[in-house]
Write a structure and sequence with these properties.
single chain; alpha/beta; five-stranded mixed sheet; 22 helices; globular
Length: 645
């Protein structure tokens, strides 16, 4: 801003006028699609301004069997001077050669001067090069930043759209709140798993359908002289329109909790703030230009608090971008040493020897099965054997591949493609893909991963030698869900009841390891090892508390899993946040519970295994808190068995 100008840090609004002026009837106008941006709405608005909407604008989405229909539309449009929009050309690869022939055959003397052919396509090898070379190419990158996102949304509105016969002020304020909400859920993606477990592509179509529904519901309320149905608006927007994209229950929980801050009657007040700092206030009533000026005064860089996140989220975001950049740089690193020091082969050979020295070939299972036989009343024996079996399979693959790699770098055997991939990964301090397929989920680099694996094996050996531990290191399990289920099974068999009637109560203990636990509990289990992200644990008050600055992850104390028959959920059968939040708001000093998800890695999302379990999500743990549960939901607070290093 100081050296150039304000416009150099703000993306210009998406404007079709100059692109259209550069076009001729025989040259298509091509939208190169990107995730999160849909140009269709802007094109329809532009067609309306040009008087081409009523009967002169035709759109068709390409796909199987749509080619002949598209040809007929183009032929009709060339004669009558219509605009033809062919959407998603990348989905009709077999018809692209026909489209190329049609475009090349356009005769400027025969085509109506008003005719225009609009095309949309994702980047695709099948798209004809000749059309790309001769066409006018455009792309509408999704705006980066909260303010830019909102300005792009308001660019397609005007005074006519915003004016309303009744409830005009309420409509304008709710429109602003909906646009701000849409920008917030889009911008949360930049925080990675801290924002959303799965990065959803919320786009302009989602926003526009919500805006149209909002307008319709406000009009109906005015006609019936009723109050604006904020709850109906929230359910339609959150559970239906946006919720249709959301596949993770915990993301849906976050989506609905955030919406409660925006779609509310309180937003009608000029004193209402959408964030704790007060930087994002509900704007006073005014015309279209007033709202645009209000948006321009918003902070250029949005702080995490508008998304409900802690300020540490900015550090997490920066770290993620840095790691992605460095990973890209690593792929371009030269594979031949420039001279001096150890050669690439020497480094790989040294690494292979070091890992082989530290990691055993396997754990002898026969004496373990003798010492810990199958016991109806002790499922932990079976859990131990199953864990050793899983680790042995992984150790066998690692040891065999490392021995072959050691021979290959010495020239004793041929360096095959799989061995070369392992060598490259080890040289880049990455866990080889062959190992990852047989291993537990982890985001650690190779050096930290090797140390972690060594620690896990030592945990199992100590269990074998000294008997069942008083406190189980949950991070050391290959399959933690099996251990959790085994504990439930012990209690179900003790009471002679079905296992699906057994739930857990949770008690956080004032210790971090087995030094504070005298003996193993008769029922249930005590675990340690998880880390907390998004907040910290207050050891004095034994509740969740705000994170300290620059402290991203903190160790969590031991948790006592107490099995209970026919447990009544304290947070009720309805959404996980409803009951607890009402209690907390009524009495801020009352200690309630936050339903905290526990994952294996910081990535949070996972795949569904054949056993019905997630490869990453483990379970929900109820953790004491003095703040309403919604506070920690927006903070994306979660427990993790393993970090990045």
């Amino acid at each position: 801003i100081e050296h150039l100008d304000q416009r150099f840090i703000e993306p210009p609004p998406f404007d079709l006028e100059p692109c259209f002026e550069d076009s001729v009837p025989t040259s298509p106008l091509i939208f190169v699609l990107v995730s999160g941006a849909d140009p269709t709405g802007a094109l329809i608005a532009f067609a309306e301004d040009r008087g081409m909407l009523n009967g002169k604008y035709h759109a068709i989405s390409l796909g199987q069997g749509q080619g002949p229909k598209a040809e007929a539309l183009i032929e009709q449009g060339m004669e009558a001077g219509h605009w033809i929009l062919l959407q998603n050309c990348h989905l009709a690869t077999s018809w692209m050669s026909s489209l190329e022939g049609i475009v090349e055959g356009l005769d400027p003397e025969k085509v109506n001067p008003q005719f225009r052919l609009w095309l949309t396509s994702m980047p695709s090898k099948a798209f004809p090069v000749s059309i790309l070379q001769n066409g006018v190419k455009m792309t509408n990158e999704p705006p980066k930043g909260l303010r830019s996102n909102m300005m792009a949304a308001y660019y397609v509105y005007n005074d006519e759209f915003m004016d309303h016969k009744t409830n005009e002020a309420e409509w304008k304020k709710m429109l602003y709140a909906m646009v701000l909400y849409h920008a917030c859920i889009q911008e949360r993606r930049k925080f990675g798993p801290l924002g959303w477990n799965i990065p959803y592509e919320f786009n302009d179509s989602d926003k526009e359908i919500n805006v149209l529904q909002l307008r319709e519901l406000i009009e109906q309320a005015a006609e019936n002289e009723a109050e604006i149905p904020y709850e109906v608006i929230s359910i339609l927007a959150g559970n239906v329109n946006y919720g249709g994209r959301v596949t993770d229950d915990l993301d849906r929980r976050t989506l609905m909790i955030m919406m409660a801050d925006f779609i509310t009657g309180e937003a009608q007040k000029d004193t209402y703030s959408f964030s704790e700092s007060g930087d994002y206030m509900s704007p006073p009533d005014g015309d279209y230009d007033h709202y645009c000026e209000w948006i321009k005064k918003l902070p250029l860089v949005a702080y995490p608090e508008i998304y409900g996140l802690h300020e540490n989220a900015d550090i997490t975001c920066a770290q993620t971008e840095t790691m992605n950049t460095l990973a890209t740089v690593l792929t371009m690193e030269p594979r031949v040493a420039s001279g001096g020091g150890m050669s690439r082969e020497d480094i790989i050979g040294g690494l292979a020897k070091d890992i082989l020295d530290r990691i055993p070939a396997n754990i002898d299972l026969v004496p373990v099965q003798r010492k810990y036989p199958v016991d109806y009343h002790e499922s932990m024996n079976t859990v131990l054997v199953q864990e050793i079996t899983r680790y042995n399979k992984m150790l066998g693959i690692i040891n065999l591949s490392l021995k072959d790699l050691s021979k290959a770098v010495k020239g004793l055997i041929v360096m095959t493609e799989p061995l070369d991939k392992i060598a490259t990964s080890m040289f880049n301090n990455q866990v080889p893909e062959m190992w990852e397929k047989a291993a537990y989920p982890s985001l650690m680099p190779l050096a930290s991963w090797t140390a972690d694996l060594e620690k896990r094996i030592n945990f199992l050996k100590k269990w074998i030698d000294e008997g069942h531990p008083r406190v189980f290191w949950v991070s050391g399990f290959y399959f933690p869900q099996g251990f959790i289920t085994g504990t439930q099974q012990n209690y179900a068999r003790k009471l002679q009841v079905p296992i699906d009637t057994i739930g857990y109560d949770f008690e956080v203990l004032p210790c971090y390891d087995d030094s504070g636990v005298k003996e193993r509990p008769a029922d249930g289990c005590i675990i340690n090892g998880p880390f907390l992200e998004g907040c910290r644990w207050n050891d004095d008050e034994m509740v969740l508390d705000e994170s300290n600055p620059k402290e991203l992850y903190v160790p969590f104390p031991c948790i006592f899993f107490k099995p209970v028959k026919d447990r009544v959920l304290p947070y009720g059968p309805t959404p996980w946040f409803a009951t607890i939040d009402k209690e907390a708001e009524a009495d801020p000093t009352k200690i309630t519970a936050y339903v905290c998800p526990m994952y294996k890695t910081l990535e949070r999302r996972g795949l569904l295994m054949t056993s019905g379990h997630s490869t990453n999500y483990i379970m929900n743990v109820e953790v004491p808190s003095k703040k309403p549960q919604a506070w920690w939901i927006k903070r994306s607070v979660a427990l993790f068995c393993g970090l990045r290093d």
